[in-house]
Amino acid sequence: MSDPTNTSSELPYPVEEILAAIDQVIRATTKAYGYRHLSDIGQHLHREYPDFHPADYGCKTLLRFVESHPERFKVKWSAPAKKGASHVWVRLATEPKRKEGYAHPKNE
Model confidence over 46-102: pLDDT tens digits? Predict the structure, then answer.
């Protein structure tokens, strides 16, 4: 199994670049307590880093990739609204929980 912190040139993108992108997506949320849905993170990564695959970094899924960096991210599971449809939320581990999220609403 490869090391998820591997920064060698064989990776399509440096690990730090991917982690910074995830951090940026989370900071753009207005959700309570700074949580962002894992699927939002995945969609952003797919758009910005089309060659990103968690398997290249030693993780089977994006969830496992995020969980392999507990110093940066906290993961929360929400109760499923429908049977078998649970939700995974991610927030920054180093930031205090903010009831209003991170992003500031635009002034009108």
Answer: 999 999 999 999 999 999 999 999 999 999 988 666 666 678 999 999 876 666 566
Distance of alpha carbon 60 from its chain centroid, rounded? Answer: 15
Which of 15, 100, 99, 87 has the alpha carbon at shortest distance from 57?
15
The span from the CA of 17 to the CA of 23, in Å, is 10
Domain 15-92 sits in which CATH superfamily?
A: LOTUS domain-like (3.30.420.610)
Q: Provide the pLDDT for residue 34.
A: 86
Paired strand residues for 75: 90
Instruction: In whole angstroms, give the CA distance from residue 62 to residue 75.
Output: 12
**Phi first, then psi: what are they for 68, rounded to 5°?**
-75, 0
